[in-house]
Design brief:
9 strands; alpha/beta; 6 helices
Amino acid sequence: MTQGNVRDTPYDVAVIGAGVVGCAIARELARYEVSVVVLERSGDVGNGTSKANTAILHTGFDCVPGSLESSLVSRGYHLLGAYAEEAGIALERTGDYSWPGTTSSRRPSHHCKKRPRRMATTRPDLSAAQVRDREPNLGEGVRGGLAVPGESIICPWSTVLAYALEAASAGVSFL
């Protein structure tokens, strides 16, 4: 995976790992007047967790509002969605449903109700019948759910490759 020549002078910034996060950081750093090297133990970008992820572009609907997680997931959702469109990365806004499983009540369980809905695209709770209408292969134990229309799937391989190629084109070294 070595790109370019090994330098005699030190780099200003070293990014450890050429997964999706490392490559995204390298791409962003390439916009500044710093020399950047990405160090990766594997023979290619995205070979670890990035290739094994679920491909979900998560809205953060179940994050605790106001938390760091909520802020980062929401920001990432919007940034990566825009980048996918710009770079031609496959992205499908499939929507999703969340259901807590078996409970003794007719409403979604403590888990769903405890997490306030932050995303404007989240619809009200679904009854058990509504969930089964949408997902007929679910068992009878489902008591309700939550529709999350903004959830999406994105090609994880194209994403990391696009970030890496843009970073390398802008002068970032990969070793």
